[in-house]
Amino acid sequence: MSTGTAEKLRTIFLVEDNKADVRLVEEALKRSTIPNQVLSVRNGMDAIAFLRQEGEYTDAPHPDLILLDLNLPKKDGREVLAEIKADPQLRRIPVVILTTSKNEEDICHSYDLHVNCYITKSRNLSQLFQIVKGIEEFWLSTVTLPVN
């Protein structure tokens, strides 16, 4: 049943220092049937400033989903995840770790910090597109997200 209202634009916040990976994720999400905007930063300090709407990010939108790499400059993804999940204003935003690390310690530590899911990036382009498509379908279509 249609209500006649447009589907809500979903904001995906990508925290990734690798320019090529940013481009690939953005390209994969352009093919989405779900209206979205991808906003990205390249280090952990900027990620926290963005999420808390500080400094140059005072007008930053509240994201619907965070895609977070672990190995970041200035403040790594583990620290960013810990700050997000410790902050009552941010902790409900789903965080997906999207990283190349298959290290069991990284996986366990991320779940100990209450990550919503941990996904290892593929270096194969078509597999990466499949991964991003799966993230999009599950987190932006299937799951009921909290209202910002």
Task: List its salient traits.
148 residues, alpha/beta, Rossmann fold, five-stranded parallel β-sheet, 5 strands, 39% helix, 17% strand, globular, disordered N terminus, Sig_transdc_resp-reg_receiver, TCS_response_regulator, phosphoprotein
Describe this structure in words.
This protein has five helices and five strands; from the N terminus they run βαβαβαβαβα. With 148 residues, it is of the alpha/beta class. The protein has a single domain (10-139), classed as Rossmann fold, CATH 3.40.50. It has a five-stranded parallel beta sheet, sandwiched between helices. β1 (10-15), α1 (19-30) and β2 form a beta-alpha-beta unit. The longest helix has 18 residues, at 125-142. It is globular, with a radius of gyration of 15 Å.
Count all strands and give the number: 5
Mean pLDDT: 89
Write down the Rg.
Answer: 15 Å
Tell me what the CATH architecture is. 3-Layer(aba) Sandwich
The CATH homologous superfamily is called Response regulator
**Low-confidence segments:** 1-5
Instruction: Name the assembly state.
Output: single chain
Per DSSP, the total helix count is 5
Q: Which helices and strands occur, and which strands form pairs?
A:
Elements: E1 10-15, H1 19-30, E2 36-41, H2 44-51, E3 65-68, H3 77-86, E4 95-99, H4 104-112, E5 117-120, H5 125-142
Parallel strand pairs: 1-2, 1-3, 3-4, 4-5
Helix pairs in contact: 1-5, 2-3
What's the gist of this structure?
Helices cover 39% and strands 17% of the residues.
